Amino acid sequence: MARTKNRGQQQPIAPTYTTRRWDVGKYIRLSKEDLKKAKEGKDDSNSVKNQRDLLTEFCQRHADEFRSSEEYVDDGHTGTDANREDFQRLLSDVMKGKINCVIVKDLSRFARNYSDAGSLIDNLFVQMGVRFISLAENVDSYRDPDSVSNILVPITNVMNDNYCFQTSKKIRQVFDYKRRNGQYIGSFTPYGYIKDPKDKHKLVVDPDAAEVVKLIFSLFLQGTSKRAIALYLNEHDVPSPSAYRVSKGLPVPRESDNPMWSSTAISKVLCNEIYTGDLIQGRHRVKSYKVHDIEAVPEEEWVRVPNTHEPIIDKATFDKVQEHLKRDTRSAPKKRELHLFSGFLKCADCGRSVIRCPSKNNNVYYVCSTYKNYSRSACTMHSIKHNRLEAAVLFAIQQQVHLAVSYSDLVARINAAPAKRCQSHRLNDLIAAKERELAKVSRYKQSIYQDWKDGEITRQEYHFMKADYDEKTANLTDTLARLTAERDELANGVNNEHPALVAFMKYQNISTLTREILIELVDHIKVYDNGNISVKFKFADELRRIAEYIQLNTSSQAEAG
Fold first, then answer.
1. What is the pTM of this model?
2. One-character DSSP codes across 198-251
3. What's the mean pLDDT when you consider all of the chain?
């Protein structure tokens, strides 16, 4: 029997492949910037139509590989934000197994966030057995698995991420520049203003809405509660800010769709400093170009530019309202008017508010809230009848008005004299004493440092003592600055039209007490256990300096005589 060469060896068999058919999800994304470029004719390569045509043409050329297709489109969305509506629908369908192939024009369409793109392509899609195709970078995780690990993919993702960072940085710089230059950059104008037709970054007064703003401030200063103001406007068919914008064909913020006035809407008007003619912007910001959450900005970082537009409310009125808003001014149920002393009364002992208590015989009296609501052993009653309180406060204001008139006359006579004396020995002595004290503290700070270096005190003791001396230094520095400013003001003299004098003198004929007068002149009123009161007036420091100026000059004239 003849021997056969290579007996026992198997003949090679040609491999056969079964073409796998995929359920494909075609993802398309267009950012706002891309949309703007397309409209301007600069670049329409990333338009929705262009992306759709490219993906459709690819699927037609490989029709034998795809069983079904679904389109996912996010139009006007940034790639750094993963919370895109159709992007999330795409991921949901991947998790449900509805699609097992994702195709995009390029990696930047899929995501511009480096970490998100890498996590999905390298981890989730691999675990789920999902095929990923990016046409521009020739990435195909099924036909060429190594293409996903190609160094080009992470580099491209990093470049896409960095592009977003640089774009975000430039946009922020532009916005900051516009804010600092007093240009209004908000999408929606505050109620009472519209954008200047000739300059969208400038505000002009809307006459109809401005009258409502003025009415709100006026009613509030008259003692009307915020809730009562809202009811009044609704009852008189005054459209709310959102309803007014709709009637005028102006854009309306999504969160401001309430057709009726509310206490919240009234608060927003009363607290908005823009009505004084000053532009305050930068109150909120996006956390980062990747995290699109909105966060509040500390007030000291707000951008304030004065006198950028016509005011609706003068600053004195606005400040008066802000003082009033700080007080506890809750009105009684079903009552629209605030009570006369609401928010002004304090217990002289515990410091808590003194509250209004109507009696059965229609008399009204006030008692300490600690005594009434918490514990009768924690504080005493501190009771006083309303009529007596009103008469006492009115008398105190009348006396202060009389004092202001006298001061004004004396200041006028002093200023008419040929020579004025403006140096206060009291202030000079105080400043000298505080300067000596500050120098002493500075020497102590230096000595404890040497003590620490010499090993006489521990590091912990040094830091504890240093913190104490730093606090004393800060307090002394603040005190010196205040005293120096007071001395400089006194050296410049006092005018009989000083704001502190004018504030009281305009009530020379006062015979009835109102909330408006209390808001302007009174800081708070203390009620004592025996029923006596003390009134803390505003402008107390200014009046004390005026009194010192008068004393300096009247005593010097007496010495000269």
1. 0.57
2. TEEEEEEE-HHHHHHHHHHHHHHHTTB-HHHHHHHHHHTTPPPHHHHHHHTT--
3. 82
